[in-house]
Amino acid sequence: MKRLSLFGAVAVVCLIVAVSSSISSTATALAQDATEKAKPRKKAIERSRETVKMLDNIFKQTIVLVTDKYVHDDDDFAAGSAAVLLFKNISESSDNKIRLIDATGDPYDTDNVAKDDFEKKGIKKLKAGAKGHEEVITQDGKPFLRSLTPVPVVMQKCVMCHAHYADAKDGEPIGAISYTVPIK
Ligand code: HEC
After folding, report:
1. Between the N and C ends of the chain, which has fewer C-beta atoms within 10 Å?
2. If you measure from the C-alpha of residue 47 to the centroid of ligand 1, how many angstroms do you get, rounded to a whole number?
3. pTM of the prediction?
């Protein structure tokens, strides 16, 4: 009888150990699941990257087209002014935040400069030859892709208003477009 109860006690202890270890492994799995949910999936980041690429191409093609066809002297409405206004309106009316900023240290408008660490670090990287700079951030619990793309002196006409662009080396960015787009 005594022996039997000893076996019984051992069995109970084994059972407790088994149950508690299975509870703790379920808890670990749940915790892993939660971090995976908080971290955006690679495919979702890639979709946002493609959105930035598409927007960037449209904006840059438009700036060149407007400068080529509509801007003839330095008091015409510059594509840069149009872009600043367009980006402000897009940023106010959607989840996409976009800015046109200077990379030369001599902006037309003092508001068009790198403002936070991401933009400041990005401008340095672009000037050193990087093709882009990006970061995944969380704002109000939602993931966003931040991306900075270079703006080179694409046409001689740019120098008409920004005289110092003439000093830029071949391919050196004189500005950048800063994007913050949702990751969905
Ligand atoms: C007709 C004059 C004019 C021409 C031509 C022009 N810009 Fe601008 N650009 C401006 C003005 C004015 C601003 C400031 C817009 C604002 O803040 O509203 C500006 C702003 C910018 C900015 C933001 C930084 C800053 O200096 O404020 C960049 C970058 C820029 N232009 C690049 C270019 C490029 C590249 C070209 C050639 C494709 C170009 N611009 C042609 C007048 C011009």
Report:
1. N
2. 30
3. 0.83
